[in-house]
Specification:
By secondary structure, the chain is of the alpha/beta class. The protein has 2 domains: 4-220, 3-Layer(aba) Sandwich (Peroxisomal Thiolase, Chain A, domain 1); 231-377, Thiolase/Chalcone synthase (Peroxisomal Thiolase, Chain A, domain 1), CATH 3.40.47. Helices cover 35% and strands 21% of the residues. The chain contains 13 helices and 15 strands. It has helices at 19-27, 37-41, 61-77, 96-102, 109-114, 118-128, 143-156, 173-181, 215-220, 249-262, 280-294, 305-308, 315-329; strands spanning 4-12, 34-35, 48-49, 86-90, 134-137, 162-169, 206-214, 227-236, 269-273, 300-302, 331-332, 346-347, 352-353, 358-365, 369-377. The strands form 3 sheets. It has an 11-stranded mixed β-sheet, with helices on both faces. The chain has a two-stranded antiparallel sheet with strand order 2-3. It has a two-stranded antiparallel sheet with strand order 11-13. It is globular. 57% of the residues are buried.
Length: 379
């Protein structure tokens, strides 16, 4: 099977829509989480979120985020994407604004069906003139990893030469209300992954896509690959609809499966881009998982959600883009908001130059869906 490489990145986040600007701001430990006056006016208990500064219209917010990120990834690759490009898109809710309207008005069923994550794929296909197969994944906060892993498998099995994969999540008031009622939100509106004072998550929004190619195709057109997409490890806790398995055993199995499939040992992982939501239970379970995999000595660990908020179905796609940039620049971005480490892990609290060969992108979703996507430096 041919190696699958990354040749283009595109993202839209609360820290900006230029990949280099976003990476620099992550290294500068900037936080994009701010007060949202519209949420305050609507009477929400929690009014802080990480929202995109150039907000598209609410009605088609997700589709506009998706198209912007996909267009940027295609341009970044320097490739006119062929019509048969395989497309994979992950999301949690789809175009959530339609479901918010449906809570007040009797919308036709067809309108709601069109608002699922399939609408994002259709918008991207129309924008870029794609005619190939496509897949969408509604696997909650692990959806980006699912999409990227699926696209890479499609290429490595010889079913195509080029793929576009990522995740999209517009800001959702439904999600905001649901997480608030479940007491998962930070009471202070500050996300502190793996910190002793962490008290919950903060919502964000965004989109990210990666252009993937089989190595021979990229080299034949003179492209310079930036990273290798490695194995995707999957497992399910099968324990609870929303709470993680406390001992992290099934998440650890996903990690071990990824390592085994890639032919790596745990000590060859140079950075873990953690799920790190800032909630009490999830961070503790993830820490247990990391101890299971790495023993007493963990590699450097950091989460991006203190800077961006939790972007749900877009999170692991955005994080995959950052993994690629970390491999390029050989610098690990820090945990924004970390003050008092709560776990015996090597938690990165400032930008750290490092020799990065393989990194692991961890995404753990509701329903006990555990994913670990390995990404390697291209050599």
């Amino acid at each position: 099977m041919e190696r699958v490489v990354v040749t283009g990145l595109g993202l839209v986040t609360a820290l900006g829509a230029d990949k280099d600007v976003v990476f620099r701001r992550l290294l500068d430990q900037d936080c994009a989480i701010t007060d949202c006056e519209d949420l305050r006016a609507a009477g929400f208990r929690h009014v802080r979120a990480g929202r995109c500064p150039e907000s598209p219209s609410q009605a088609a917010r997700g589709r506009q985020l998706a198209v912007a990120a996909a267009r940027a990834a295609a341009a970044d690759s320097g490739l006119k994407l062929p019509e048969d490009t395989f497309l994979c898109v992950g999301s949690t809710m789809g175009e959530s604004s339609a479901f918010e309207v449906a809570a007040q008005d009797d919308l036709p069923r067809s309108v709601l069906i069109d608002a699922t994550s399939v609408s994002f794929a259709r918008a991207v296909r129309a924008e870029l003139g794609l005619r190939g197969d496509f897949r969408t994944y509604g696997t909650a906060c692990a959806a980006g990893n699912y999409a990227i892993g699926s696209a890479a498998a499609h290429l490595s099995l010889g079913r195509g030469k080029v793929a576009l994969a990522g995740g999209v999540e517009p800001f959702s008031r439904i999600a905001m209300l649901g997480f608030s009622r479940s007491r998962a939100m930070s009471s202070h509106g500050v996300c502190r992954p793996f910190d002793l004072a962490r008290d919950g998550m903060v919502l964000g929004e965004g989109a990210a896509f990666l252009v993937l190619e089989v190595e021979s195709h990229a080299r034949a057109r003179g492209a310079t690959p930036w990273a290798v997409v490695g194995a995707l490890g999957l497992s399910c806790d099968a324990e609870h609809p929303v709470a993680p398995l406390p001992d992290g055993s099934m998440a650890g199995l996903a990690f071990q499966d990824a390592l085994s499939a890639q032919g790596l040992t745990a000590d060859q992982i140079d950075w873990v881009c953690a799920h790190g939501t800032g909630t009490v239970l999830s961070d503790a379970a993830e820490a247990q998982m990391l101890h299971r995999v790495f023993g007493a000595k963990s590699p450097p660990v950091s989460s991006l959600k203190g800077a961006l908020g939790h972007t749900l179905g877009a999170a692991s796609a955005i994080e995959a883009c950052v993994c690629v940039m970390a491999l390029q620049h050989q610098v690990i971005p820090p945990n924004v908001g970390l003050q008092q480490p709560a776990f015996d892990l090597d938690l990165v609290d400032r930008p750290r130059p490092a020799s990065l060969g393989w990194v692991a992108n961890v995404a753990l979703a509701f329903g006990g869906l555990n994913t670990v996507l390995l990404m390697g430096r291209y050599a």
